[in-house]
Amino acid sequence: MADVWRGLYLPYMNRVRSGELPWTNFDRLHRMSLEQVLGELNIEGFDNEAREEFTRAWERLPPWPDAAAGLTSLGRRYTVATLSNGNRAQQRDLMNFTGLPFHRLFSAEDFGHYKPDPEIYLGAVAALGLEPDQVMMVAAHKGDLRAAQAAGLKTAFVERPLEKGPDGGADRLPDPDSDTEATDFIDLSEKLHSKDDSLPR
């Protein structure tokens, strides 16, 4: 069920991007796709309250083991912000659950666009009061990074081999098109701190 549900993430988001659906935040898209999954798999017995609880599971995802230490180290030099397709409330609740030390939380909901639309990347850049080449997009998804580059941002690929489960499917190193490649956030912090790059402090 979880795999099928996760597989509807992009199709439902693209229904908004294509104009088939009006702007709909991520929680509501997940709730809509959950209804589809339960119907297709003939799963019964979940009332509305239980379905809402399933939807809120996206707010209780555990962080990767290196994330807190790596982000803390990065945060000593840089402004560290999310740029997520998740909505504002989801981002807030997820950060409250994980305790990850982000300075700013940016959501697709802030800009009315889902990645990889250029408006979301450029919206975050503008909200930071910076130019695109002063911002580095960090992600485990190469498509996300290519879209950020097309908008003028620098990029760093952080590999998450198990991001799509033990059966694989995650993007893997190398990513020579990115400005920086890393095995995790601690590795990324060490590499950025050792480089004489142009990102602002």
Q: Could you give the topology of this structure?
A:
Blueprint (H helix, E strand, L loop, with lengths): L1 H6 L1 H9 L8 H15 L7 H8 L11 H9 L5 E4 L3 H11 L5 E4 H4 L6 H11 L7 E4 L2 H9 L3 E5 L21 E3 L2 H10 L7
Parallel strand pairs: 1-2, 3-4, 4-5
What do these coordinates show?
- The chain is built from ten helices and five strands.
- It has 201 residues and is mostly helical.
- The strands form two sheets. A three-stranded parallel β-sheet has the order 3-4-5, with helices on both faces. It has a two-stranded parallel sheet with strand order 1-2.
- α3 packs across α4 (48-55) and α5 (67-75) packs parallel to α10.
Question: What global shape is seen?
Answer: globular
Rg, alpha carbons: 17 Å
Helix content: 40-55%
According to CATH, the fold-level topology of the largest domain is Rossmann fold
Question: How many angstroms does the end-to-end distance come to?
Answer: 43 Å
Please state the second-level CATH architecture of the largest domain.
3-Layer(aba) Sandwich
Biggest beta-sheet profile? 3 strands, parallel
**CATH superfamily heading of the largest domain:** HAD superfamily/HAD-like
Work out the count of structural domains: 2
SSE class: mainly alpha
Summed over residues and divided by their number, the pLDDT gives a mean of: 94
Short description:
The chain has 201 residues and is mainly alpha-helical. It has helices at 2-7, 9-17, 26-40, 48-55, 67-75, 88-98, 108-111, 118-128, 142-150, 185-194; strands at 81-84, 104-107, 136-139, 154-158, 180-182.
